[in-house]
Amino acid sequence: MALFERLQKIVEIYVRHIRNFNFARAGKWSIMFVLIGVIAGLGSIAFHYLCGLGSHFFMDMMAGYRPPPPAGEQHLFHPTSTPFNRWVLLFLPSLGGLVSGFLVYQFAPEAEGHGTDAAIDAYHNKGGFIRARVPIIKTIASAITLTTGGSGGREGPIAQIGAGFGSFLATRLKMSDRERRVMLAAGIGAGVGSIFRAPLAGALFAAEVLYRDPEFESEVIIPAGISSVIAYCIFCLAFGWGTLFETSADIVFENPLELGPYIVLAFVLAFTGFLYVKSFYGITGAFRSLKLPNHIKPAIGGLCTGMIGFFLPTTLAFGYGYVQLALDNVAEMSVLALFLLAMGKILTTSFSIGSGGSGGVFGPSVVIGGAMGGVVGKLFHNIMPGVVTHPESFIIVGMAGFFTAVSNTPISTIIFVSEMTDSYQLLLPSLFVCSIAYVVSGPWTIYNKQVKNPVASPAHAGEFMVDVLQMIKVQDLIHLVKKVESIPQNMPFLEFKQFFSRTKQHYFPVMDAEKRMIGIFSSTDIRGVLFAPEIEHLVVMKDIAKSEVVTTTLTENLNTVLQKFTIKNIDSLPVVQEDDLGILMGMLSRRDVIAFYNRQIQNLKGDSAT
């Protein structure tokens, strides 16, 4: 019987929650996140098709350059018979830079560089607002940059497509900044998750990439998850299901001694990441300091890219196919070729994007990390073949470790690489390498617009203030609770007048014969009697005191305390015992509360800056 009654109560609780649940609101939000996923998926299809068309027309027909695709993708158009021409390849990226530079700086200057950083900046500093034209210009300019030989990734433009639509939809529906930010982040997750065929990683990436610390924006994960799954399904319906890269099922982790070489790999990746970030922003700063029109800077960067590509064609465009070649048969690729691929890719990406060109930085990171992983894997395979039996595994782990080192997104990156390569059996070494790489490379990031944590984000300034105030109790300010002189209820006003002339106290608790507080008055309350000498000999202090006393206790939080200060417009609150509200412990001033809060904020900001 008791069990039946308990089950009945549980059912009643759930029924009450269901009745109170706002299905209309939940349905509205779900529809919007599905719509963001649909647009992001269609945007991924359009961008992928544009890239295929551009590669066919520019690199294939004009230069005879046909880089191999990864296993999960095929050439969208039949290859031509144009012979390979290095001289065309030398100037082709410059031509692409000239056209993309004109488009970007003429119509949407904020579309320059890698789009993910712009979306992060919009989240933290612009209330999630992105101009509607930015995704369109970003898509066209990125397609031109990348298909004329410029080195970059697809995630930047597609992230701005999804983010831009989420921002546009929220703006048209007149939603709050917070809601717009969530929809922007959902668009990021949908775009990235679809174009790389990694929906789970896309959702986690959108929530993790916002911060340098290993933090997740929790309110983003579910919306980004819904949008990412929808976008992924739409993209795969057009271009087929499966993973971006294909790996052998024989690649597994089964020897703990292999962790030693993986430690070396983590440090190599961290150092390479340092070179990548310094090269990228060093070249970016150099181009910004040039006294030339912004429109032609990407053309100069493209010429520098073409000069490198003249000798190292593998470093141009996307480069995913060369990672696939290494995964298929790393034995046929020399250590020098893999090393030159990584170093050359760092330079071509820095010149292509740092000069003002348009593209992402995740894609090149996959190539650089995979190539450096192959270098370390082959070296250790030659030294200790009995321990490192599959150097291909170092290529996969290298992808994850390198991007972690430059982006501060260890969790989503591990999932990214696992989904892109279908290599979940390497989760353990990936976690190991990414953790070390993250710790070692903490001071630098390829995403300059990341903030350290939610404390440092302008997007959470107001929310954080309330959170901090709610965490602090009056008990934490016990050293600021001041003892004050109390006034007997029957004290004549004339006697109090003499006392008042000697004190700096502004609030006066009034006590009964048992030393229990029955009221309180301030120095303002006595003005009426102080300037009416004809009645002051008739008044006792009980007559002046206000019997409705606003008090606080040691267990109340500062948010509640400040509300009491504000609502009643008072400067000091009596602190009383929790179990007996008549026992006065002292007075707490508004000035001391605000000063204490400001010190806490400064301490937290100091921590977030380190």
Compact description:
The chain is mainly α and 610 residues long.
Features:
CBS-domain; 4% strand; mainly alpha; Clc chloride channel; two-stranded antiparallel ribbon; 610 residues; 5 strands
Question: Could you characterize what this model shows?
Answer:
This protein has helices at residues 2-20, 23-62, 86-107, 115-125, 133-147, 155-172, 177-195, 199-208, 218-239, 259-289, 297-311, 320-328, 335-354, 362-383, 392-407, 410-421, 427-440, 461-471, 493-500, 527-530, 541-544, 558-568, 590-609; strands at residues 487-488, 507-511, 517-522, 572-576, 584-589. It is mostly helical and 610 residues long. The chain has three domains: 23-239, Clc chloride channel (Orthogonal Bundle); 256-454, Clc chloride channel, CATH 1.10.3080.10; 463-609, CBS-domain (Roll). The protein has a three-stranded mixed β-sheet with strand order 1-2-3. The chain has a two-stranded antiparallel ribbon with strand order 4-5. Helix 19 (493-500) links the parallel strand 1 (487-488) and strand 2 (507-511). Helix 8 packs antiparallel against helix 16 (410-421). The two termini are 60 Å apart.
